[in-house]
Please model this.
Amino acid sequence: MLKFVLKRILMLIPVILGIVLIVFTIMYLTPGDPARLILGEKAPQEQVDVLRDQMGLNDPFVVQFARYVGNMLRGDFGRSYATNIPVAETIAERFPKTAELALAGMFLSVLIGMPIGILSAVKRYSILDNISMIFAMLATAIPAFWLGMMLIIAFSLNLKWFPSSGFDTFRQMVLPTITLAAVNAAVIIRMTRSSMLEVVRQDYIRTAWAKGADQKRVVLGHALKNSIIPVITVIGINFGSLLGGAVVTETVFGIPGLGTAMVNAIRMKDNPLVLGSVVYIAIVFSLVNLAVDIIYALIDPRLRE
Amino acid sequence: MTAQNSAAGQGAQAPLLEVRDLSTYFPVYGGALSTVKGYVHAVDGVSFTVNQHETLGLVGESGCGKSTLIRSILLLEKPTKGQILFEGQDMQAMKAAQLRHLRRNLQIVFQDPYAALDPRMTIGQIIGEPLRVHGEADAAQRERQVKELLEMVGLQRGYYHRYPHEFSGGQRQRVSIARALALRPKLILCDEPVSALDVSIQSQILNLLRSLQSEFGLTYIFISHALNVVRYVSDRVGVMYLGKLVELAPVKELYTTPRHPYTRALLSAIPIPDPTVSRERILLQGDLPNPKNPPAGCRFHTRCPFAADECRAAEPALTEVAPGCQVACHRAVRGEI
Amino acid sequence: GDSAGTNPGGEAAPAAPSGEKDSVIVAMNADPTGFDPQVTLDATAMMVMYNIYDTLVESDGACSSDIRPGLAESWDISDDNMVYTFHLKSGVKFHNGEPFTAADAKFTIERAMVEPATASYCASIDKVDAPDDSTLVVTLKVPFANFLMNLGGSFFGVVNEKAVTESGEDYGRNPVGTGPYKFVSWSSGDNVVLAYNEDYHGEAPAIKNVTYRVLPDTSTALVALQNGEIDALPNSAPIDAPTIEADPNLNLYSAPGATIAYIGFNTQAAPFDNEKVRQAVKYAINKEEVFMGAQDGDGVLANSPLNEVMDGYNPDDPVMNPYDLEKAKALMTEAGYADGFSCSIKLAAGQNREKVAQVVQAQLKEIGITASIETLEKGTYFEQMAVGNYEVYVGGLNWPDADDMLTYLFASDGPFNWGSVYSNPTIDELLVKARQENDAAKRSEMYQQIVKITDEDANKIPLYFPNQYFAAKNSLKGVRVIDNCYYPVASWSWE
Amino acid sequence: MSSLLEVSHLKVLFHTQQGDVPAVDDVSFQVEEGETLCIVGESGCGKSATVQAVMKLVPTPPGEYAGGKILLEGRDLLPLSTKEMIPIRGHEMSMIFQEPMTSLNPVKTIGSQVGEVLEIHRRDLSAREIRAQVEEKLSLVGIPDPARCAASYPHQLSGGMRQRAMIAMALACEPKILIADEPTTALDVTIQAQILDLIRQLKEKTGMTVLLITHDLGVVAEMAQRVLVMYSGKVVEQGEVGALFRAPLHPYTEGLLACLPRVDQDEEELYTIPGQVSNPADFPKGCRFHPRCPYRQQICKEISPELREADGRLVACHFLPGERVRREEGAL
Amino acid sequence: MTVKTEKPLSARPEGEEKKESPFKEFCRRFFRNKQAVIGLVIFVMLVFVAVFADVLVDYDNQVIKQDIVNKRQPPSSEHLMGTDDYGRDILARVIYGTRISLTIGLTTVACAMAAGIVIGAVSGYFGGRLDNVIMRVMDVFMSIPSMLLAIAVVASLGPGIVNIMIAVGLALVPGYSRVVRSAVLSVRNKEFVQAAKAVGDSHFSIILHHIIPNALAPVIVQATLGVGEVIITAAGLSFLGLGIAPPMPEWGAMLSEGREFIRYMPHLVLFPGLSIMITVLALNLLGDGLRDALDPQMK
Ligand SMILES: Nc1ncnc2c1ncn2[C@@H]1O[C@H](COP(=O)(O)OP(=O)(O)OP(=O)(O)O)[C@@H](O)[C@H]1O
Ligand SMILES: Nc1ncnc2c1ncn2[C@@H]1O[C@H](COP(=O)(O)OP(=O)(O)OP(=O)(O)O)[C@@H](O)[C@H]1O
Ligand SMILES: [Mg+2]
Ligand SMILES: [Mg+2]
Model:
């Protein structure tokens, strides 16, 4: 098991390097002159040229990339063009909110998705099953930002149950979490349901019945653990889309997470911040997937070797 | 048995196929960096010859390397070492075009009649494929040939435009055989062609294979794990165990006087559909060892009731003990068992 | 939210008994970029900095000739208008406890002279001297009539030399001023917290704690205001005005804005190097419609880059809305473009210039010009504009002083004369003269002359000045709306 | 005395998209205490459906118990609810399946899966006792290191070991009847021999009753006392094993025996049963075997033969061996 | 010795058993699924609207022509869905938006699918080191949340319809290539492929004739579901201000334009929002139906 974990951690290194390379390349190809941006619209060209040189923007791509990776290893993601604040600090300040949001969203969607998915599968074709399938269908078809806006109108403006913005108190967390969780809950419901239905057809479930197990034992004791395995993968993969979706949700609800910082940074052409944030989130996402793989192996003994 | 007679009559002729010390290993990946941690010795130093018009049967338990051997002969799997001589020519040394040409002479029939036919092609396309690939005949000619082939294997010409799913397992196996026959090959490699079929269908296919052999002078390598089937079709039989050929003998010899302990056990394990026959049974202990790390010495020693120290120490070579009878067992060679 | 007494969490604020309440939560529509007055010129940051920093002299924003003493109690001006001697207040302390001296003032101005963001505002300054702790002497290169007003701008906010040196690159996050509020914390993207400065040299403000909350979405922000999550909403959207006015708990303050929206051309490249074409565009644009479309008719139309608060404004000349489609078409034909042509309209993302562009796009279609809209990120936009890589653009300029406004737009080296495509020696000369002219009437005349010249060659087409709005709870008193970033909290109080 | 298990006129339908499939059609048989009854027949003839019905394990839907009786010691199981079946399954009757890999839960240890049967049916046992019993059962089925095996997961064992574990599980509560649905089909011959030998030994030791399903006549010959031959959902012949092999009464049984190549005999050409098993959704009228039968007469195409007694056995054919006329090829 | 034993003896030709072709069976399964049929009907209607958008509405005079005086009119008999911020008829824009959104969705997915098929087929078929390298690269792409990848690409290339398609499509490729690869892996060792190899068929021909046709089904399902995903992601980018340039009536852009008026004139966001919802819903129903019909055992 330890070997498995170590192996997965080792495998993470090239993946992370790859992530940095891709995002760095994308941002490198961005038209626009960072030096001009830092100095502002009115600065004379000579000054801009000097700064370009200082920032190493005239160096070849490989040199710039190597420098970036080198700095990154020391925890230095550069400084924001717009605020001159070290990107690492902005990330440290902003990311916890995004993480909270994503975790809350994940927690809620698992809390809703798994039990409903299981019940839907066990009581296939029942009313509950139909309702949850309709919900799942609708939820995946509604753009999150639209849902968020509608929730604000309904529950914040008209009913005044929840605040429309922020993410500090419990009441503030309700609407954004629902917004973010809706799609994911739908995915988890569907995944759990189909995985459960799949597992229920397996031979070993027949074996369990043949032993004289009752339904509770069959579902909880035999089917659940097996059917959860694919769901966990989905949860891991979807954590990425939650982190991505947080960008939109944060914008709708004015949550000061890394997502809004990133959107802002794009508007301001603040490349180091965009680059740093994307790389950071991608790394976090890889780590989440590592964790998922480990959980996976804990559940499924076949993967441990 | 016509085939056997003709083979015996032309005994002096050069063999159609000669396999020399053929080995095929599959790398096993492992460790933190997915490096090669070892090899599955799927086929390990196998040598034999196949003569014109004869049927060489190969038996062995699941995983002993039968399919790999066949696939290696066809160069579908790259052999790790050894030589494959077809009509005296080294297949691995051939140029691509030459090899392509030679492939016409070597065809294969698979075990699973469901997986062997592309579900998206019509029977006509499937059987015509070898002709198409080799640029044989134009479309019209091809259709005529395919229909002839259909008839040859006992199917109706009208099936030409049907799809595989419309057929039963036995019929599909006939289609597979027709495809293998399309290029008029000299050698057909049959990888468990009847294992997936019901008994009542199995005999139809076996009869078909035999009649085709006599009609076209075909040569077969016939793989099966069912010894009764092998006995029925083969002139000579080879027994494989964990990638090794442990015994090779003419069919009568092998079934009447099996020499290798494994062959004996295998033979005795087969239930005979006759409640009146009662035999002394040699029950083997344990399972087939993991081919990733086969036992040292004789590979069979872990399950062999006659194992001695020398069996654990040295690997026995395939040795001729009687005309045409070879066995790889220290003690059997000396006639001790 | 980590400062005591504030409630950035935004639970519907518990109705504190009136009179006891001494904190306020103000919305900000974007995260500020830092609080270094000589580095940061963004509007949200300036809104905060006005409350942290003092300037030597004070004016209401920068658009008033009413100059009041600030950190300088009084000043003398030499006869040639070249040397200004300031007598500084004594006993003033920075938030870090350091005493305020002339050396800090000198440091500040000299810093402003070299910082890229502010250097251009200091073009007229020759040197600064601090003969003693309470005297500051500023010598100009040329006389500059608006010098004092300029000195009241937030970018001359006086900083403490020691604090600046100590913090180095991070000064923007650790601002130290002498103003009524001192900086407490800034959590990026979320809020900025200020607290009352006990040592403030002026009158003690009624509000003790100020929290600025970042609420980028205007409709969310309004809901927050209505729900009592925040107390004040600067720059509320015109569309929300009726709602705010209808809300019995809210007050809406408005003032004519000083930000102009205009259309500019690259006058050096075909087809807009052809004056006829520019004229045609001028007549093809129905300002009323643009104004309605972009602004819902909120604000005032512009006939020139100047408005009523600026010198040289004349409401009748040039014509307010010269829209005349026939004439425009005729001009196009005259210019040899009877069949029209294609061009692109560039603009920087993130303002409602996009709406302007869309309306203009539709109007240009009427005279056969097929315009595509290129919304560029700020950086790209500036970069392309700076080298003259554009055809038509929608510009905006917030500079409520006639001299600056006209200089930036029309001077040969004016920063908003993008790529220096326009050069008119007469205008350059007039600008210099006006700057040195102390007689307001004469100065106005010169400005009018410039306006006339530029209108005739249709160099830029002024569109409108939007109104300035500020929504707040009606229990918040003392609110003044002066400029889009100048809201002195010190004057506020709860009812 | 009534039989231990008596199935009479059992009918199981599967509702499929091609129509209703009468997978088990009017099947009757008895299993006597202590005997081994083999059911043979081609793939799809309804062997599994029959024994699954006995355990009430036919998935419904798509399956349906369409009639008949299943009497276990005189008590009809068909009307019982799932709950009422619990004490019977695994306790009075237990079952092992063909594919030992997929029939074991991949994420649970062998020990816990074997122990579960005891947990369900032997409430009186403590966890410790269960563990001890599990190891005992595992060693009973010839697993060399029961403690290690109990802690292993299915994928860590070989096929033969898994099948042994399955048997241990089935035997945990010492059931009266062991139903084995093709227990050796997925295994190699040498392993098959081990497993069959094991079942035989256990039977000798405990005297349990075995219902063995297979398609291998060799296995039947070795294991069975009595045989039930099924074809297309129907019982075509039933009787004592020796007699049946010696002189099969039904043409299908006859063909089946004749078409097998044997290790102990040479044959020049194999007998073949022509054609193939009919599509279960569309069985032919009359005798279901008639399209492949070399002796068919007009009546075979019209009337489905009833099981009748002949020679101490039961057979479902209009003609007994002496009455048949072999048709010439192509005469139809 | 004759082998034609079965023909004269069998009562009827065996091939005549009522087994359907896979396609027919697929159709029967699909059309029994009411939801899927609804999805298909809606989708066909949407495609119809998209194809004939030019005929249904006049782009110059209805879709982009402004009428500032009549801006933000509530729905009326003249403007069934009201007018937008520039006085343009929302219905006309929604209709035209169908073309844009569907084009974005379908083109992006088609391109991503093509790339995915090539990458997946090559990777899966040849296996070994090449496969390893390709899959690691795909892993890397998959480790960047798709929305973020899209944001980074838009940040770099700037907004615009083609850039959006690149941004969103790029994120889809790894998923598709994985699906294709695993399908290819399951086909690659099928014996009919071995048979083709044994005959001497070339790799290219094998991939083309055997591998891709048999590996296509899961990708098609994935792609159908992907179209909806793309439409939503593109709308999300437009919402963040990183989307399509005006005056193109892309639904997401319409939503984000109408956003500030959501309190007062919800119809500005209601109709484009509903359009997205219905389209995505239809595609999802269709995709699920396809999946169930193609392989009832698939998840
Ligand atoms: N592509 C491969 N990669 C790694 N190992 C393989 C591969 N193909 C076969 N093997 C291993 O090689 C050994 C021999 O396999 P092969 O398929 O030749 O056996 P077989 O005798 O045909 O068995 P069966 O009767 O089950 O068909 C097995 O242990 C198998 O796991
Ligand atoms: N779940 C099911 N749904 C529909 N039809 C079924 C189902 N299970 C079995 N059948 C049908 O019932 C018939 C009998 O099946 P059964 O599994 O009993 O055959 P079998 O004799 O055990 O065959 P095998 O030797 O292949 O195991 C077959 O025709 C099969 O198609
Ligand atoms: Mg094989
Ligand atoms: Mg069965």
In short: Chain E touches chain C at residues 60, 64-66, 68-69, 71, 85-86, 155, 158-159, 241, 245-247, 259-264 (CB under 8 Å). The domain at 48-63+87-298 of chain E is CATH 1.10.3720.10 (MetI-like fold). Chain E has one domain: 48-63+87-298. DSSP finds 13 helices and no strands in chain E.
